[in-house]
Structure formats: C-alpha cells, structure tokens
Structure prediction request, 260 residues.
Amino acid sequence: MQPRKIALGNQKGGVGKTASTLGLASAITAVGGKALVVDMDQQGNTTSGLGVELEDGMMTAYHLMNQTREGIAAEAIIATPWDGVDLIPADEELGKIESDGSNDLVFRLDVAFEGLDLSPYDAVLFDCPPNMGKVLFAVLIAADGVVAITEPTIDSVRGVQKLEQTIDTVRKRANPKLAFDKIVISRRRTTGEHEFRENELRETYGDLVAKTVIPELAARQDAHSNHTPIHQFKGGKALTLKVAYSDLLTELPVVIGATA
Prediction:
C-alpha cells in the first residue's frame, strides 16, 4: 500500500508551513512511523531544519522539475539526522523553474514519483512554496491531498481562499482525485484578532478546520534552530507543541503502519 502524499501549503509566507511539516514528521516518528519530506520551497528551510547541508552534486527538488524521467525521485531521496525521516532537499535553484516555459513542466514532479515504491513510508509530506506558481501546481498534481496551513489573520485567511480556488483548478484540469484534507490554524496567539479570524474560519469551513490548533511558542523556532524534532526537544514549552502536532496527526488521513 502506498502512503498518502500530502501537500502543506498556503499562498502566503510566514504562516508556519515549514514548522507544521517538521512537526508532523516528528509526530509520525514519535509513534514508530516513517516519513518522506519533500522540500519544494526554494528557501530550503525544511532542508536546513532537518539538519541537512547540501553538497556539490546532490540531487534536489530542482532536478525533479528539470527532467521527464519516470521514478527519478528515488535518486534524490537522502537520509537525514532525524531517525525515521528521509528527505528530498531544496535550494535556491528551484526558483529557476518559474521561468521555464515548457508545456509539460507542471506534470514533471508527478512523473518523477511515477512507479516508485513508497511503501516504507507512512506519509509523504510536501512543503510547498508560498506563492501560486508552477511549482505549487506541480505539487498539487502529484499530491493526494492538501493541508492548508494558516495563521488566523485576514491575509492568511485570504491565502486559504486562493489555495482553495487553485485546488479546484487542479482538480478540473489535471488531478480530479485531489482532496482538501484539512485547514490547520497555526501560530495562534491569545489576541482578539486571532480569536475572531479563527471563528471566521470555523464558520466558513466547518469540520474542514482541524480541531487542533498550533500555538505560537518560542520552542518552535528553538527546535528548528537546533535541527531537533519537536518531540525530542526539551526547551521552553515544547510539550505543548508535541501534544499539538501529535493530536493533529490523528486528524489527518495518515495511518501509521498501514503501508508496511
């Protein structure tokens, strides 16, 4: 059985996509699972957060988007310092893809995963770029489901609305099975604005909004800076984040051990 390929995205940056990708990967390994993380953001923050330093000649997500060979993604997968987490890394070269005018460009990532045996993994997590470009379309064509990560602010909520429109476009044109799995409220603070926007999201989207909310805590950035899974991090209020990401995992269509 193949694992679910989940795109984590929002067409606005700074909403906690990378932290959520890493937090979910940590939660998967904390219960004995294994995750493949695919960094599709040219900033490479997920790559660095996993403690990976790119070396000359190393294959990255850019190479998957720059060719048309079936199954080539297997050659780009590397182990990371995190037990149970493998990675397809990214760097700034990925930004060149947006200027590529090839007609088949947005289908190349899907082709790169074609025929791969991903059964050793319990989930494949794509960290998407914070814009509506060719790379995002490519991820949505390759994915099974989308998890929208949003900070409860007006701009981020609009980002969710735009992402929803993009999902509909991809369904109609290329990937009719693409599911909108969840909306996750991230970086939540105890302010009136955040409470208002959270209620607005829940009134608009109902059960599509995850019950679990990821709070804004310094432990998130501290764990990232130390390249440490949040479930192993000892500082700050890490326990609160551990519980949050573990609870969030139970709300997603990921079944640990189902692919073994």
About this structure: The domain at 4-251 is CATH 3.40.50.300 (Rossmann fold). The longest helix spans residues 154-173. The chain has a mean pLDDT of 92.
